[in-house]
Amino acid sequence: MLILAIDTTTSVCSVALAKDDRLLGEISTDLPRTHSQRLMPMVETLFAETATKPEDLDLLAVTRGPGSFTGLRIGIATVKGMGLALDLPVAGVSTLQVLAHNFSQGLVCPVLNARLDQVYTALYRSGTGPVPENIIPEHPASVEDLLAELREYKEPIWFCGDGVDLVYPAAVQVLTTLVRAPFHLNRPRAAALADLARQAPTCSADALTPLYLRDSQAEIQLRQREKNEA
Questions:
Q1: How confident is the model over 31-47, as pLDDT tens digits?
Q2: N or C end: fewer C-beta atoms under 10 angstroms in the chain?
């Protein structure tokens, strides 16, 4: 099975091609240019370097969130367009699960910056099976609420994701089990997404939906203005 995996949910833009259990190639960048500028040139480079073409694909995979609303829409729109054009099934996988899949064992707490003094987070245990086991479901949380949820766990917990800097100063004061992930494990990787997609449920391209977990900041501000004007 040849899988093209795409992640655009954070500042990182990552694409990978995997055939069965072999990674053929992966390109990841964390640069100022927008995902809309980078994504398709990266995909085209990956096809060229691996001597493959879109018509060879069996499955498309994409991180469906949570994450940046703009990034999510770019990734999902791209995969939907390719899926419809090529008549391919699509696997949508949680960004948080993809982050957790960077680790071979132990408790993993991915945290993504959700703005408004919150993070998107969950808790997983890696190493118990082919995919990370979800212990605490995905949800938005304040730093204080997240740390309160984690205090009962006495074993080391890996923290990863672009929200770590928000959590770390308070976490080191209350969690003796905190382990900060090194940079090569600290961002979503399309290679991890491709591996998870091999075992994930699939859908048609037009049925793919994003996982936001929360309304956008603009939507929240609009409701607040309407409330103030009422």
A1: 877 899 999 999 999 99
A2: C
